[in-house]
Amino acid sequence: MAGEGISIDEFMEYDSMVRQTFKSENEAYKFYLGYAKSKGFGVRKGDLKYKGNKENAYRRTFVCCKQGYHDVKHFDETDKKRTPRALSRCGCPALLQVELQASTGLWFVKNFVDQHSHPFINPELSPFLWSHRGLNDPQKADVIEYSVGGLRTHQIMDVMEKQAGGFGKAGFISRDLYNHVVLAKKKKIEGSDAQFMLNYMTAQQMKDPEFFTDTPQTVMGICRTYSGQTPNLAWTMLHLVVWWCLKAHTGQTNVGCRLFHCGAKPSPQHSRVWGWSCIRRVG
């Protein structure tokens, strides 16, 4: 805070900030988020200091979202696969630093800088800043209910915006909703499609003796593979090691293999398979 040319209101605001105490580091973060939202800037979590092991945090710094600068090396990259994002950092010095007082167990304000090197946005637009966006727990519960009811993700977004009072009032944007839905689906199937399929086959095996898993086997398949992170669109013939595969009592080994491509291991020159269909067993 500058020592000259400040108003009484600015001084009172500064004095109020430095007198704050908090029960936890997270409480301090929520407080600074609310302050930043009312002013029109975003917040990032900065350094976290420990005493001894990683369980004894005693100091945390929260900074303006425009603090620091982008690394120079990123400007020299010529083979970027994605369109570079607009520069958003300009070395803003604003911060709130809190420290744990061992005698009381409370976090107090150790340092507060309210000077910014950039203009604030309109506070009405603050909900669109990354640090002020996100679905709260009641909204996440609503998303589940709407999904069970058959609404698609874009329809859920429309409904929740109308309930909140219009565009920008929901507290999140469509990208946040889509990301949440994807993560929820991944969590529901316990981390991977392959694990989901293994659990499914185990359950089916317990219910139906005609449905059982086979030991690992090698099959010939037509495949689409990845080379690094790039998908190869052309189909190619490969020997695949299938760890889990449905097998009928008739001896046919290709029954249901298409469902379980997640259990296939491609040849060494390819990083992984993204689609395959079994043709015949090898050997």
What is the number of E strands? 10
Protein structure class: alpha+beta
Question: How would you characterize the largest beta sheet?
Answer: 5 strands, antiparallel
Distance between the termini: 78 Å
Shape: extended
Residue stretches low in confidence (pLDDT < 50, at least 5 long) are 243-274, 278-283
Mean pLDDT: 76
Strand content: 15-25%
SSE topology string? HEHEEEEHHHHEEEEE
**Structural domain tally:** 3
Question: What is the alpha-carbon Rg in Å?
Answer: 27 Å
Strand order of the largest sheet: 1-5-4-3-2
Tally of DSSP helical segments: 6
Measured as a percent range, the helix fraction is: 25-40%
Domain FAR1: 30-120
Protein name: FAR1 domain-containing protein
Organism: Triticum urartu (Red wild einkorn)
InterPro entries: FAR1_DNA_bnd_dom
Secondary-structure topology with pairs:
Blueprint: H1 8-18, E1 21-22, H2 25-39, E2 43-50, E3 57-64, E4 95-101, E5 106-113, H3 137-148, H4 153-164, H5 174-188, H6 193-207, E6 217-227, E7 230-231, E8 236-242, E9 264-265, E10 272-281
Antiparallel strand pairs: 1-5, 2-3, 3-4, 4-5, 6-7, 6-8, 6-10, 8-9
